[in-house]
Amino acid sequence: MKLVKESLHSFEKKHDPLSSLGVGKKSLIEKWLKEMEINRHLIREDLTIDVYDGVGLDDIDIKEFPNYIQFNKVDEFFSCSYCGLITLKGFPKIVNGPFWINNNNLTSLEYSPKYVNGIFDCRNNAIKFTTEDVRNRCRVLIDKDILL
C-alpha cells in the first residue's frame, strides 16, 4: 500500500491531472497568457513563467496580475505602462531588456525585478521614485538607464 501511495504522489507531482481537463492553475496560466497574447513561453514546474520574447501589456486595465501569475524571466523587454497598476506582484525576477512601468498608480517597487538589462522606467506613478528606491530593489547596469 505504501508503494502505491508513493507512486501516486510522484505521478501527481509530474502530471497535473486537472490541467488535462482544462482546469487547475496551469490551465488558468495558459489561458491568461493566451488572452494577453504572450506566445513564446514556458510554464516551469514551480508554475513560474519564462518568456522567450518581450511582454507588452500597455494600456490595458490591469491593476494587478491574477494571483496565479508569476513571471520568472523575460528574454527581451517587459512593458506594463498606462494600466493603473497598484502592485508589481507577479512581475518577472529577471528582464533581459528594458522594463517600463511608467504612468501607473504605484506607491512601492516591491516585487520589481531583481535584474534589468536596460532602461528601468518608473516615471509618473502615484509617488516619485528615486534612484535609491530602484537600486534597493533592482540591479540596473547604468544609472542613466533609470528614468524617474
Number of helices: 4
The domain count comes to 1
Beta-strand fraction estimate: 15-25%
How many whole angstroms does the radius of gyration measure? 18 Å
- Note the gap between the termini: 61 Å
Decide which structural class fits the backbone: alpha/beta
Mass-distribution shape? globular
Average per-residue pLDDT, rounded, comes to 88
Give unreliable regions as ranges. 3-14
Helix content: 10-25%
Based on DSSP secondary structure assignment, what is the total number of beta strands? 11
Major β-sheet strand ordering: 1-2-4-6-8-10
Largest sheet: 6 strands, mixed
| Helix-strand string | HHHEEEEEEEEEHEE
How does this model look, in words?
This protein is an alpha/beta fold and 148 residues long. The protein has one domain. It is built from four helices and eleven strands, in the order αααβββββββββαββ. The chain has a six-stranded mixed β-sheet, covered by helices on one side. Strands 3-5-7-9-11 form a five-stranded parallel β-sheet, with no helix packed on it.
